[in-house]
Amino acid sequence: MAKSVNKVFLLGNVGKDPEIRSTPSGTIVATFGLATSDRFQDAQGNWQDRTEWHNLVAFKRTAEIIRDYVKKGSKLYIEGKLQTRSWDDKESGQKRYKTEVVVFDLSLLSGRDEGSGGSQGGYSRPASSASSAASFDQRPAGGQDDIAQQAEISDDDIPF
């Protein structure tokens, strides 16, 4: 048999909050839509944007990450494969088909506060005063020369 490839790479924005459910065996499943945009010139030479919507599904740990970190407006990079499901419609008795991207890997590209109503310009964190930061300093008192001991890292420094 000849070699075949079923691989999908997408970079886009989530259209609405993911739907999370569990199978009867307890496997977590996340389903959501991802929008990608394509720019082209029409017959008159004007630039047009076209949005394509993709149905995505993720399972197990990937679905948990989506549940915890992905929301409407999140920018994602997705790697997965195409899969088509079929079923008989209960009302009409007709065969129905749905093609989805099964997500294997994803990268969260939005900042923590981006997404529905968040800032568009990139990651930002709220400013804090030096006195409030010092009151939470757990380091031992004294002159520490190690730069790692002097660095102040908070949850706001983590990009996801």
Task: Please tell me about this protein's structure.
- With 160 residues, the protein is mainly β.
- It has a domain at 1-38 and 50-116: OB fold (Dihydrolipoamide Acetyltransferase, E2P).
- Helices cover 12% and strands 41% of the residues.
- The protein is built from 3 helices and 6 strands.
- The protein has a 5-stranded mixed barrel.
- The longest helix has 10 residues, at 60-69.
- The two termini are 43 Å apart.
Question: How would you sum up the major sheet?
Answer: 5 strands, mixed, barrel
State mean pLDDT (0 to 100 scale): 77
The percentage of residues in β strands lies in 35-45%
CATH architecture designation of the domain at 1-38 and 50-116: Beta Barrel
Fraction in helix: 10-25%
Spatial arrangement of strands, main beta sheet: 1-3-4-6-5
CATH superfamily of the domain at 1-38 and 50-116: Nucleic acid-binding proteins
CA-based shape: globular
CATH-defined fold name of the domain at 1-38 and 50-116? OB fold (Dihydrolipoamide Acetyltransferase, E2P)
At the first level of CATH, the class of the domain at 1-38 and 50-116 is Mainly Beta
Q: List SSEs in N-to-C order.
A: EEEEHEEHH
Counting DSSP E segments of at least 2 residues, the number of strands comes to 6
Q: Give the termini separation.
A: 43 Å
